[in-house]
Amino acid sequence: MRYEFVIIGAGIAGSAISYFLQNRKVLVVDKEGICQKASNAAGAFLFPKVGFNTKYTKFVNEALLYSFKIYESIGIDTNKTGVLILPRDEKDIQKFKEYKKSFTLKYFEKENGFFFSDGGIVNSEKVCEKLLENCEFKKEEILNIEEKGGYYLLNNKIETENIILATGWEEILKIPYIKIRPVWGQRIEIETDISLQNHTHKNCSISKNENGIVKIGATHERIWEDKAPNQVSAQILIDKANEITKLTNYKIYSMKSGMRAGSVDYFPIIGEVIDTEKTLQLYPEVKKGRIPKEVIYKKGIFVINGGGGRGFSNYVYSAKILSEAILNNKIIPEYLDSKRLFIKWARKLKI
């Protein structure tokens, strides 16, 4: 059977882009299943970014508001009870005084920090399943991709006109100019009787108590290996949570971990994949720092990656932008387009 799109990866990135392509003939494949690995371990907190009104801060907060809109429209409970974002130390307290001069989201000051009504949390598995419900899904590992003149053949049996790579930190096709920074994170859930009126973030994120369960999560270890959730790292999260509220009479209910896929400049990476060999052959001056007249793309191969620890808000907005580029030829903003990484990569090549 031939598909118009095959999306490789059924985490939040793949699920999000599938939602915006659901009226097309789409197949989503993942070797682990729907919402596994990093997406399964995500805290899925939907919090604003506190900082100066930079391009990245504006992107994160625009993406956040858009994500709330989409999740609520498809019936996902966003637990939008607000979030209190606290400074980590005295240095942060001084920074916060400067940050508030450029806030665009509504807030009020509380406990040396800022309370935003636009703060919530979603169930990661329910989100991915809901976003995917109108697309076909297969649990399968893609081991072979062949170009067949007008279409691609996957695993010698799946035909598709387009491939979208939503593979996180694992590489399916070699894309030399895209470097993913894997960052290990863990989420624990505890049974407790503590009462929090809202979600809170300091050195970790803590959810409001929901039926006796509180979620604690952080993306806190920059390592290059996946590992199982463990008591040592769980205790680190407990210690961080204790800086926010004293945890008494609690029991760890579950532990999950996974490798978040981050980009070198924190922005997500979306767009058509560049044929680096052909582009450099035609425009070798790129290596000297010059912008090429054009770049040559691998027709029908796209990427959505690099969402980092904010995947459940960043990817929905990024997927909308990517789908509009694919279907309606809309321009991808430069700060999201994977082309930005190609130019930087090419300039570092030896002449």
Total number of beta strands: 18
Task: Give the uncertain stretches in residue-range form.
Answer: none
Distance N to C terminus = 45 Å
- Proportion of residues in β-strands: 25-35%
Share of helical residues? 25-40%
Name the shape in a single word.
globular
Secondary-structure content class: alpha/beta
Q: Could you tell me the mean pLDDT?
A: 93
- Give the radius of gyration: 21 Å
Q: What's the main sheet like?
A: 8 strands, mixed
Q: What's the total helix number?
A: 9
So what's the oligomer here? single chain
Compressed to H and E, one letter per element, the order equals: EHEHEHEHEEEHEEEEEEEEHEEHEHH
Topology:
Layout lengths: L1 E7 L3 H9 L5 E5 L6 H5 L3 E2 L8 H19 L9 E3 L4 H10 L7 E4 L2 E4 L3 E2 L2 H9 L3 E4 L5 E3 L4 E3 L3 E8 L15 E11 L7 E3 L3 E2 L6 E9 L9 H12 L8 E12 L6 E6 L1 H7 L14 E9 L5 H18 L10 H9 L4
Parallel strand pairs: 1-2, 1-11, 2-8, 4-13, 11-18
Antiparallel strand pairs: 3-7, 4-6, 5-6, 9-10, 10-11, 12-15, 12-16, 13-14, 14-15, 17-18
Helix pairs in contact: 1-5, 1-8, 3-8
